[in-house]
Design a protein that fits this description.
Layout lengths: L3 E6 L5 H10 L4 E7 L3 H11 L8 H5 L6 E4 L6 H10 L3 E4 L7 H14 L3 E3 L7 H11 L6 E9 L19 H18 L2 E9 L4 E3 L9 E3 L5 E8 L4 E7 L8 E7 L3 E4 L9 E4 L6 E3 L12 H12 L7 H20 L3 E2 L14
Parallel strand pairs: 1-2, 1-3, 3-4, 4-5, 6-11
Antiparallel strand pairs: 6-12, 7-10, 7-16, 8-9, 10-11, 12-13, 13-14, 14-15
Length: 360
């Protein structure tokens, strides 16, 4: 069966692992060509990975009949315009997270994709890795009993001390929830199910940020988004979850994600990774590490894109689909709205988990 050809819009920092994995790992997809607003980035990718085409812009890419799927790895506030233009050109799209920078953008993307009969998928795909898939199996097999709740914590002091271009993290479509929330929420809904209502408190602790990384050392960022979210979720199952994300706090670690059951507790690995460790606590026993039961324990970004390509080739659903990315977007938007309005926000979208990954 012919491989599915992917066109890259964007060749920034995250593109490296996509380029590497599509070139050397996933046999059902290949790179048709690339483009970037900074031509040198695209040129470097073409040279390193022997890519056949270098497009002058995304519109030339969209016009290429060989491109089956547009990979949108632009900055978050650019996701909407790129995805909509690609759909208008008749291309399927796989986008980095989030689906859009607002719920309204997400609705328009889904509506246009449905009108055109096109697929839209998106990151994160870390939930397809060995770690979270092992957690899903343990939960589905009843090892921790009925799910009572879950909790996630992403705590750090932001990106301006190390990232080469940190400003967009504090602008429309950024902030700790829209940047890192998709990893945690995608894991949570895959482990605990659909969310039906949310509430949150938010704040912006530092209205300005001093960049100390190169090449923008000394520049000031005006912060336009909340940089601390304390959010709660009510799942359709009755379980209650919490997600705390912040760029305002000094902390020696970063990721923590736990699922609480009527018989025990599951310690889920960092949802920004594909592997472990997975740890289980059952009362009366020591905490024990569980062997991973699935493939893809290493950095397997583009796994969701490969899964989408398989669905395009063979028909049927795929796992990192727009129902999932839209549900996560609505939850994040609900947190932001609740923080502004001080009330619980109902979640209208419905999410159904797709089949688990094959076991080893």
């Amino acid at each position: 069966m012919a491989t599915i050809k992917v066109g890259f819009v964007g060749c920034g920092a995250i593109s490296g692992i996509y380029l590497e994995n599509i070139t050397n790992r996933f046999e059902n997809i290949e790179i048709a060509g690339v483009c970037d607003l900074i031509p040198e980035r695209a040129e470097a990718a073409v040279e390193k990975y022997k890519i056949p085409k270098l497009y002058k812009d995304m519109y030339e890419l969209f016009a290429d009949p060989e491109v089956d799927i547009v990979l949108n790895i632009t900055r978050p506030y650019e996701h909407f315009d790129v995805t909509m233009a690609a759909l208008q050109a008749g291309k399927h799209v796989y986008s980095e997270k989030p689906l859009g920078a607002s719920l309204e953008e997400g609705k328009k993307i889904k509506a246009l994709a449905a009108e055109k009969g096109l697929m839209v998928g998106g990151a994160p795909d870390t939930f397809l890795g060995a770690g979270i898939q092992t957690c899903r199996k343990l939960i589905d097999d009843g090892v921790i009993g009925d799910v009572v709740g879950c909790a996630g914590f992403m705590i750090c002091h932001g990106h301006e001390t190390w990232h080469p271009d940190p400003e967009f993290y504090y602008k429309y479509g950024g902030g700790p929830m829209f940047d890192m929330g998709p990893y945690y929420l995608t894991a949570m809904v895959n482990l605990c199910g659909n969310v039906e209502a949310v509430s949150a408190m938010t704040r912006t602790t530092f209205p300005e940020r001093l960049i100390t990384s190169q090449p923008h050392n000394g520049e000031i960022i005006k912060v336009d988004v909340p940089t601390l979210y304390a959010g709660n979720m009510r799942f359709t199952s009755g379980a209650i979850g919490t997600l705390y994300t912040t760029f305002d706090v000094f902390y020696p670690g970063q990721a923590r994600l736990e699922v609480y059951g009527s018989k025990g507790t599951l310690f889920v690995p960092d949802p920004n990774t594909f592997g472990g460790p997975v740890k289980l606590f059952i009362p009366g026993e020591e905490v024990k590490e569980i062997d991973l039961m699935f493939e893809y324990p290493d950095n397997s970004r583009a796994l969701g894109l490969s899964d989408m390509a398989s669905a395009l080739q063979e028909g049927g659903p795929f796992r990192a689909n727009s129902d999932q990315t839209f549900h996560v977007l609505e939850i994040m938007e609900g947190f932001a709205q609740s923080g502004r309005e001080g009330r619980e926000i109902p979640i209208e979208s419905r999410f159904e988990r797709q089949p688990a990954m094959p076991e080893k």
